[in-house]
Amino acid sequence: MSGPRVNSFFLGNSSGVNFSIVLSPRDEETGKLQLANCSGSKRAGDWNLDVTPGTNTSKVTVSLTRTLELCLPNATECCPSPLCMVEALQVLACRGSVMLAQLLIQAEIFANSSFAGNVSENATIIPNQAFKPLGSCPCNLTAGACDVRCCCDLECSPDLQQLFSGSCFTGVFGGDVNPPFDQLCSSQSMEFTPEWFPFLCVQSSLDNTPFLGYFYHGSTSTPKVPSFKLPPQTSPGKPFTGYTEGDPIITEEDEYFTVPQRSMAGQCVGNAPVAYLHNFDVKCLTNLESYKEGLPHDVRINTGTADFIQQNVVYRIITDRGKFITESESPHAAEVLCQNVTFAEHYKFIWKDKNIEQVNVTVFLGSLCDGEILTQRFTVEFLSLRSTNGEEPFENPGYQAGKPVRAANMNASDPLGSLNIWQPAGRGLCASAAYRPVLFGVDSYSGCILEVGINEDCSLLRGNVTEKLNALIQATHIGKRDNSSYSELNDWVEIIRLDPVSSNVSTGGLKGICPDIPANLNIRIMFAKVGAVQGIPQQQILAVQISYSTVLWQFQCGLGCKNTLSFLPITASVQFIEVPAQPPIPVTRYQKIYAEFDCNQNDVCWPQLLYPLTRFYTGEPYSQCLAKGLLLAFLVLLAAVMSNPWFSKLWNR
């Protein structure tokens, strides 16, 4: 450590643990630190030890109590030299006489340097950086103190400069503000000086160096800090010009219309504004203690033309709370406090061009009791007015890559379904894992970890794993298109479910071994391009299949086999398979013959027989390749001529 305070952490339960700090002198004969015992205290010399306990982590702080000022004449309790203190400390964590943890600290602390001269009231004159260097030592960044590795800093004493004399900053930043440049006649820094250099070199003073103004950035402008307030209207009578995609929706009170949404950090934000033409479907966890009501439903909304419309609200009562209450912290008692709260809100905005024509809201209410955790659901959907009842195809009805896949539960009163995969957090346990929707065209692979005991019943384990996997698919059908109507069954495809295959493996009654555990969920979605709207392809889902892959789970024994829990990873994978909308065109006879001469499909490529003589060959210059090729052709022609019988007769004559 190089400062008067240092922090560390003790991991584990700190109840009954005694923390102490001791000075560790070195043995004069061996030079090693002497071992300490658990009989120390929380104060040793000029050092104090403070411990802030926590649940599973305790913060340990070691601080120095003495001053670090340099000694003035006839002063005591100060630092006689710049290197004020060099000591070795040991921090011990003991339970009784048993040492649980040990921390060794080597403290080398320098004295604080301060300005002791007279302060002048004259303002410092800053030179123009374009004509004169701003400072002769740019690395001198700290006033009244020595900057490490800055050898031109006049505030560094000779003793301090010896510590970093071999690693000083170089170049302009290190103080060489006027280095000789390459074009200077007296400069010999160029490795290869051309012969014409003496005729074209520059005779100039170093004060006129090109490095002048190295830190000069020209004129500056005041940055415009964005404001989180709405811009005021220039004239009260000016009408609203309408919404564009992404604009926040405004209420009658000139405020944002907000609905709880999930932030980038994964947490739910209650006052998040709704963006025009941006759909979302989020789930937020809350309990009775932290529950807060959202924006009132009697708030009127700006249509986009300075007119205001009222929300059409329909209230429904939730009778089956199993889909929303995910955990109960304590069993219900007769005196448990319960309250009527909002379980879900579904918003439908009917729009036309740049205006909002109608807002329909469905609110689901239910009873939430103390000790229960509620999973609230909020959905916002924008539908075009050109559709019939807001559910017929509009714009591009097909799926777009990256958009959530629509799901429906046709066997429930509320047909809204979900098709999700895990989004683990923390330790990756299934109990704390969140969900995220399956996105169209995005192959995904996720999973979580399930804690399993050594005495786990195999049948119960299979049922528990199957329940965790089935919780991802709260649907019976998947929408063929992005705007599939819940009232039209032909707009949906039924999910094909394949049960896990049993291998009939017997374990012989052994504990810690369970075969045929359906630990892997496989979701395969087949889609095709069935057309285009305004040049944008329409993609439609044709079929969805869900299958399971089984594994043999075996209890993993840790060190000494003292652990009673093992981990079983369960996974879910999503695969999108594109199939042609029509059968492919059969290959013609010409294409089959041409394939024999295709260099990309055959090992022998006849068109590249004379490849070195073509311009595609870049191993040598083309002129050399051409010369070698002509020489080779001449030798072949000469060999053919000399092998002819009449040439031998002519030669003999």
Key features?
single chain, 653 residues, mainly beta, 3 domains, 7-stranded mixed beta sheet
Give an overview in words.
The structure is a single chain. The protein is mostly beta strands and 653 residues long. Helix content is 9%, strand content 32%. It has 6 helices and 27 strands. The strands form 7 sheets. It has a 7-stranded mixed β-sheet with strand order 18-23-24-26-25-27-21, with helices on one face. A hairpin with a 5-residue loop joins strand 11 and strand 12. The longest helix has 21 residues, at 622-642. The protein is extended and about 95 Å long. Belongs to the tectonic family. One of its GO terms (biological process) is protein localization to ciliary transition zone. Residues 113-221 form the Tectonic-1-3 N-terminal domain.
User: In angstroms, what is the radius of gyration?
Assistant: 40 Å
Largest beta sheet: strand ordering: 18-23-24-26-25-27-21
Number of helices: 6
Main sheet summary: 7 strands, mixed
Distance between the termini: 104 Å
Strand content: 25-35%
Unreliable stretches, pLDDT < 50, 5 or more residues? 233-239, 388-394
Whole-number total of structural domains: 3
Question: Which shape, going by the Cα principal axes?
Answer: extended
Number of strands: 27
Helix content: under 10%
**From the helix content, strand content and strand pairing, which structural class follows?**
mainly beta
- pLDDT averaged over residues: 80
